[in-house]
Amino acid sequence: MSRLSYALVWFLVVAALGAGAYFWWQRQSSQPPVTLPMAEVKPPVVPPAAPAIKHPIEAAPDSTAALPPLDEADAQVKAALTDLLGAQAVLSFLQADGFVRHAVATVDNLARPHAAPRLWPVKQTPGRFAVSGSGTERVVSTENARRYAPFVAFIENVDTGRAVALYVRLYPLFQQAYEQLGYPGRYFNDRLVAVIDHLLQTPDPAGPLKVQLTEVRGELKSVRPWVRYQFSDPALEALSAGQKMLLRMGPVNARRLKAKLIDIRHQVAGVAAAR
After folding, report:
1. Quick one: which of 121, 171, 128, 124 has its CA closest to 150?
2. Fewer CB near the terminus (10 Å): N or C of the chain?
3. What ranges make up the beta strands (E) of the chain?
């Protein structure tokens, strides 16, 4: 209230109520003013900062503009994979439809207890999981490793430098798929490097790997018992889906794939610009 307004109000009060009212007012005004409690001021809510990017990829300035939207990218991605690997290899080993989304989901799942085969970017290995022995004394058969030999050879023959260059060129699509998977603000290449590190920690057990059938209670008999085998060693059975895959491939195949993973990790972890 301005000084003029305050004086006007004071004058009207005095004129209406007389001198007695005036002296009462003056006595009240001489007392210390009542201090009202201040409202609690809460600090603004600051959302948690996104994790710092550990392994950044700097794509070429025109790479994003040249890419179609993720939902329309299958044809271009398939053409790029065919150029890199050859039509026969893509047809034999890869699930080209939805490749980017499948690759992102599988990479994320490999370090978890389960990686659903329907989401794999590669086709399942033909044949059945093979064991030897009988009763409760069963081990992973050495014949089982032969099923994976063509796939391992295919991976070994991929030019790592060219593959990483393609990955960098398509990286905006991988990043978009990763965020749509439920990781906004997270960086897919960091997850890729972390999962590779996790797979490289897969143990190298000495001797045959003992397995046993998972107990299934119920009246219906399983028609696919080969998918129910688990490692008898609780420590091995507690490994992630990706680590158990490496073990099932056999020690020789596992070592060959680990060597390729080391090569890939060296390149994707140190990428600073598009090639």
Report:
1. 124
2. N
3. 131-134, 137-140, 210-213, 229-231
Confidence of residue 272 (pLDDT cuts 50, 70, 90): very low
Question: If pLDDT is split at 50, 70 and 90, which confidence band does 271 have?
Answer: low
Tokens standing for residue 1? 């209230």
At 13 the pLDDT is 36
Q: Is 122 helix (H, G, I), strand (E, B) or coil?
A: strand
Beta strands in 114-252 (DSSP E): 131-134, 137-140, 210-213, 229-231
- H helices then E strands: how many in the chain? 12, 4
Report yes or no: 102 and 95 within 8 Å, Cβ to Cβ: yes
Instruction: Map residue 87 onto helix, strand or coil.
Output: helix
Whether the pTM exceeds 0.90: the reply is no
Backbone angles phi, psi at 122, to 5 degrees: -115, 155
Distances (CA, A) of 82 to 8, 87, 269: 90, 5, 25
In angstroms, the CA 126 to CA 144 distance is 11
Q: In the chain, what are the domain boundaries?
A: 63-213+227-269
Query: The tokens of 175 are what?
Result: 């990043």
Segment 174-183 long-range contacts (CB within 8 Å, at least 24 positions apart): 174/100, 174/103, 174/104, 176/70, 177/70, 177/100, 177/101, 177/103, 177/104, 177/105, 178/104, 178/108, 180/70, 180/101, 181/101, 181/104, 181/105, 181/108
Q: Which residue has the tokens 């040249």?
A: 66
